[in-house]
């Protein structure tokens, strides 16, 4: 599949994840947000940038439980809980944070 951003096209998987994480930038994230009906606000950006940093640091994606705990450690308990994360990404916090961050689909996500 192809994602059109401005005048360029980026390759995506059949589920809309970028094939190459290096293609990502904020415009790409905004476009992915539009296509997934997830308008990007400061709270969502915080989680998107968090998961990008996590992936670059550890070279892998966490499972949902580790993701939530890592957010709690880094950003506080008020943000590191599933209730808060589901308000931001109702259809799956880890899956959609990764998608909008230009990262691969997490292995445990359907």
Task: Write a concise keyword list for the protein shown above.
49% helix, 110 residues, two-stranded antiparallel ribbon, 7% strand, Arc Repressor Mutant, subunit A, 5 helices
Descriptive report:
- By secondary structure, this protein is mainly α.
- The protein has a single domain (2-100), classed as Orthogonal Bundle (Arc Repressor Mutant, subunit A).
- 49% of the residues lie in helices and 7% in strands.
- It has a two-stranded antiparallel ribbon.
- A hairpin with a 2-residue loop joins strand 1 (2-5) and strand 2.
SSE inventory with pairings:
Blueprint: E1 2-5, E2 8-11, H1 26-35, H2 42-58, H3 64-75, H4 82-88, H5 93-100
Antiparallel strand pairs: 1-2
Helix pairs in contact: 2-5
What's the short story on this structure?
The protein is mainly α and about 110 residues long. It contains five helices and two strands. The longest helix is centred in the middle third of the chain and has 17 residues, at about 40-60.
Percent strand:
5-15%
The SSE order reads EEHHHHH
Evaluate the radius of gyration: 13 Å
Q: Say how many strands there are.
A: 2
| CATH class category | Mainly Alpha
If you consult CATH, what is the topology? Arc Repressor Mutant, subunit A
Major sheet characteristics: 2 strands, antiparallel
CATH homologous superfamily annotation: DsrC protein, C-terminal domain
Strand line-up across the major sheet: 1-2
Shape: globular
Structural class: mainly alpha
